[in-house]
Description:
- This protein is of the alpha+beta class.
- The chain has one domain (about 5-45, about 55-145): Aldehyde Oxidoreductase, domain 3 (Alpha-Beta Complex), CATH 3.90.1170.40.
- It has four helices and eight strands.
- The chain has helices at about 15-25, 65-80, 110-130, 150-155, and strands at about 5-10, 30-40, 55-60, 85-90, 95, 100-110, 130-140, 145.
- The strands form two sheets. A four-stranded mixed β-sheet has the order 1-4-6-2, with helices on both faces. It has a four-stranded antiparallel β-sheet with strand order 5-3-7-8, with no helix packed on it.
- β7 and β8 form a beta hairpin.
- It is elongated.
Amino acid sequence: MAEAGIRLAPVPFDPWAELAALQSALAPAVGASAIFLGTARADAADPAEPDGPRLTALELEHYPGMTERELQRIATMAAAAHDLLAARIVHRVGRVAPGEPIVLVAALATRRAAAFSACRQMIEALKYEAPFWKRECFSDGSARWVEANTPAAADGAAIPGADPAASTGLPG
């Protein structure tokens, strides 16, 4: 049975150390590792004003207990569906500065097709089904909650890899 692990990180984490530890524990069976690493970027508050206030931090809130269960469900389902050796999700909570990792999704398998597919399935499901809320803080002291954090969420388009029946119904 594949390892399907998750962790919420209240402080910055080293995604490459996470991946190295996971690969080392499974060597030499691992033939392919696919990862998604999301980082906070210092966007302008208003894209039409690129010299205006910049993002200074993201504040990531979650629903304790429910968030961990949902992330574990996502990792476990991907590991089983794609016959992975391991699936791992590490997600920040709390205050995140530009340039810091927000999320690491890793899929380890014997073959690349399974690793790629599982990684994509996990990040898409996480973005739309896990109960996280983002508040953007800007250099002028203003802040705003993110209502829809991806174009598909904003326009109601189908979400590849997401399981609509498993949705929490909460914003992601």
